[in-house]
Amino acid sequence: MWVGREEHVGMVRTLLDEAVAGRGGSALVEGEPGAGKTRLLEEALSTAEGLGCRIRLGSGDELWQGYPLRAVLDCLYGDGAAGDRGRGEIVGLLNGDGADTPTSETSLMAAMDRLLAQVDELCAERPLVVALDDLQWADGASLLMWQRLTKAAPRLPLLLVASCRPVPRRRELDRLRAGLVERGTLPVRLGPLMPEESERFVESLAGAPPGPGLRGRVGLAGGNPRYIEELVTGLLAEGAIDIVGGRAELTTPDGGRGHLCSLADRIGFLTPSSYETLRQAALLGVEFDAGQLAVVLGRTTRQLLDALGESIAAGLLSDTGDRLRFRHEVIREALYADIPGSVRSALHHDTARALADAGASPPVVAGQLRGVSGPMTGWAVRWLVEHAGTLNAQSPVLAAELIERAIEQGWPTDADRPVLEERLAEAATLLRRPQSAGLVRTMRDRAQDPARRAVLGFMLTSALMVQGDMAQALKATEEALAEPGLSADWHLRLVACRVLCHADLDRLDAARAEGEEAVAAAERLGDPLAEAEARHAMAYVYYRLGREREALRHGAQGIARARQIPAAADIRLLMLANVAEGHDRLDEPEDTEQALDEARTLARRVGSTGRLVGMEARSAEFHFRRGRWDCAAGHLERAAELKVLDGWVPVLVHGMHALILGHRDQRAAALRHLERVEPDALAAGTAVLRDAGHLLLARALLAERDGRPRDALRVLLPVLSDEYTAGMVHERHWLLPDVVRLALESGDAGSAEAAVAACEAEAAKAPEYPGPRTAAIRCRGLFAQDPAPLAQALSYYEGGSWPLLLGQTLEDLAVAQAWHGDLAASRVSLDRAVEAYGGLGAQWDIARAEARLRTLGVRRGSRATRRRATSGWESLTPAELKVALLVAQGRSNPEIATELFLSRRTVQTHVSHILGKLQMRSRTEVAREAALQAAGE
After folding, report:
1. d(CA 789, CA 787)
2. Given the DSSP bridges, would you call strands 128-133 and 54-59 parallel, antiparallel or unpaired?
3. Cα distance between residue 831 and residue 861, in whole Å
4. In angstroms, rounded to a whole number, what is the distance separating the alpha carbons of residues 259 and 899?
5. pLDDT in the model for residue 712
6. Contact (CB, 8 A) for 225 and 4
7. Half-sphere exposure (Cβ direction) of 913: Cα atoms closer than 13 Å
């Protein structure tokens, strides 16, 4: 089944039709190995034969590059049988005076002239289509002859189609390529298949659409058709795919590995040096640092330039700015599997030690130790004891795994074992593992030193608070405060914990009174960390009281104190996150962004992966609500890359991704994200529910899009429950207007009325916050179909940067105006709603708004949006256009990512799409086109 190449086939078919009509032309098909170049040539020849054309097919051969015109002769005259007069005539001209005499320039030119005349004669009989595969291996004379043929093609019924790999790089081939394109040869670039195309291809191979597991496995092929085909057919041969519920799914999580051998063979075209370098790079992971690869190989980075350059040119590696990345993860897996297991384990250990000696970060070294099978060596355990604290902050998953291995095999000394046990308890706490509190409690009960018991008591309280068990956390705090010999600073820090527990248990008066005393005592003590902890507790108390200004005051003062000492970095990060949310709730975007930027910078500097993922997630929320959806997607990707195991992370990351894609009417892509969220993900309790809004809205949006508004309402109705009321503090108002709308459209007035009441209750609890207050006004207008309150809500959204809420409120207002018979005003509101949605690329919202108003007799004015072109400069999306203009300025991918607040992977994807849409190969060509567009303006 020919999937994902329909547009490219159409491009060649257009040239073929013109050639049949007597106006010849040429095309150059380019792409990485496995992209489908040969298949496209065969498709073109098959079509041409059906149209009555004479067809000729040949290919370049690396072994025959020393024989002039060999590639073109093989292409036109096959294997050169003795009876072939045309080939014999050309060979005679090339031989000149004798077969052993080197071909002179005169003989070569005479042969080329005669060959051109022969092509004229063939074209005089009927249209001729000539396809030359593997142009990169053709001899120099054939390249020159191909150039001459392309010059002659426009005056003949002749179509020339050549295919070419990006490697090997040959200077004469580069010159030919540039000359062909400049003189009108059509470049046909075969890029990777899009996800939807890959799924269709898998369906054609497996007999059913792929399920989530198989889809993820196929995703490792990077959209390369040959790799996908070999992967799927290999899995089928292994019996690793089964059809379940109409979906093709893996029978085991890893899906088998036997098929990887054939994939490794597919890159045998690399030079031995490049192949071995790439195999060593596979040990470092999907992404790796070229400098670290040089350290592992005992060479300089300069010495790796040729090998890495060949792999990049072949499309096996991509440059992300400061790192290199395998473009097809399945190829990295194949190279990795090509190394025998015992050798691989030893290499991982040696790599870890070499990288540690070179000063690599603890997660990098630990990642290599993770690949070592068998017992850990003495060096590995000593390294772990020294770096476990830092590793906990940056990668608690790795830390816990390695520490558990070290303890189980009994390596640590009596002095080292307590250190590793404490680090394991820290990791378990950070990972929210249920056993974390038990580990800390055991260590606390064993400890004799009062100072150590205070530290462990604080850790126990923290572990219980992280797990959400505030009653037990309060009990542990009381026990710690009763310890004899407690220092003043630890006493105050534990009191701050007690204040937090009381506040979370709704004992707000007691929490406030004790918190104020703790702040005053910390100021007298002059301990920055103790005061920061106390200020943080008081900020939380005022947040729970709905007094955000007071909360922000304490937060700002606590942050100022925390900046004074490095030990307060974690509490500073926590307060920055809370301050950012507070400013956001008060609609103060500049202060919000400033706090988020400081928090992300600090989290990166101190290596706090857990805090960083939170900052990326909150930044994504901020940009999403402000209409900067591409920026939001960049933050979401960075959050996902950090691979933190907290349950709320996939709920927020995939929920918001799906919501953005759903608004943009990219249903298949949105569903892929929803499938990556576990079905029972929201059963984990209030810690997850706070971040559930985007997921619920995405599920409801897709249900409504599929014509199931009652199902959409059922998705959202849980937000009216007590559980969600407790879990989604100050968050429900984002969802309640949709509950009102869907309930009314489903004829469920009771649920609509309950949603209005819930929103008004949210607004009453937080009178300082404009968001809930405006949402309540909008809900009242929706329920009563009253334009007045809707216009009141609109005035707030018009004054700020809330484009999605602006569009939705305008849409609701248009419906209410139509119900009241004011069709002219309704049309104006509809047009404005569509304009707001259009700026976001929210095609589903446009379709929904038009459908709602159409039933009321209202259609849009004359500002209908033009369908976007599929190729050329006009086809670029607003985000791609921004990236293209920065590329034209000579900016690198990392610089563009920083400028536009995107991840480097997102920028890389945009650049690939830009090159594909513009049918270009380099950033230089993009710059040239941008200059032409600017001149045209």
Report:
1. 6
2. parallel
3. 7
4. 42
5. 97
6. yes
7. 18
Residues forming a β-bridge with 250: 241
Which tokens hold the place of 151? 């010059």
Which residue reads 């004899």 in tokens?
484
Beta carbons within 8 Å of 898's beta carbon, 6+ residues apart: none
Sequence-distant (≥ 6) Cβ neighbours of residue 156 within 8 angstroms: 22, 24, 119, 120, 123, 128
Strands 287-288 and 317-319: unpaired
592: its two tokens: 């919000």
418 residue type, one letter: P
The amino acid at 395: S
pLDDT score, position 94: 81
Strand partners, 247: 244
Q: Is 891 within 8 Å of 883 (Cβ atoms)?
A: no
pLDDT digits (tens, 9 = 90+) for 797-851: 988 789 999 999 999 999 999 999 999 999 999 999 999 999 999 999 999 999 9
The predicted model gives 152-175 an average pLDDT of 88
Question: Of 42-56, 589-603, 884-898, where does mean pLDDT reach its minimum?
Answer: 884-898
Dihedral over Cα of 440, 441, 447, 453: its sign: positive
Predicted confidence (pLDDT) per residue in 170-182, tens digit: 888 888 888 888 8
- DSSP-derived letter for residue 137 is G
Q: What end-to-end distance do the CA atoms of the chain give, in Å? A: 44
Q: How far apart, in whole angstroms, are the C-alpha atoms of residue 391 and residue 608?
A: 9
pLDDT at position 411 is: 65
Give the helix/strand (H/E) hosting 326.
strand 324-326
Q: CA-to-CA distance for 208 and 210, rounded, in angstroms?
A: 6
Other Cβ atoms less than 10 A from the Cβ of 450: the count is: 14
CA distance 821 to 491: 68
Tell me which residue of 108, 172, 110, 109 sits closest to 137, measured CA to CA: 172
C-beta separation of 670 from 702 below 8 A = yes
For residues 4 and 34, what is the distance between their CA atoms, to the nearest angstrom? Answer: 13
Cβ-based burial of 862 (10 A; exposed 0-12, middle 13-18, buried ≥19): exposed
Q: Mean pLDDT score of the chain, rounded to an integer? A: 87
At 133 the three-state DSSP class reads strand
Give the tokens for residue 858. 């209202």
What type of residue sits at position 403? I
The string of pLDDT tens digits covering residues 273-305 is: 999 999 999 999 988 999 999 999 999 999 999
Region of 246 (left: φ > 0; alpha: ψ -120 to 50; beta: rest) is left
Distance CA 198, CA 866 (A): 29
Residue (of 264, 208, 212, 265) closest to 236 by Cα position: 208
Tell me the C-alpha distance between 106 and 96, whole Å.
9
What are the start-end ranges of the H helices in 223-377? Answer: 225-237, 260-265, 272-282, 290-297, 305-313, 329-337, 341-357, 362-370
Token representation of residue 795: 């005035």
Instruction: Indicate the helix (H) or strand (E) that contains 250.
Output: strand 247-250
CB atoms within 10 A of CB 839: 14
Element (H, E) at 317: strand 317-319
Q: How far is CA 537 from its chain centroid? A: 36
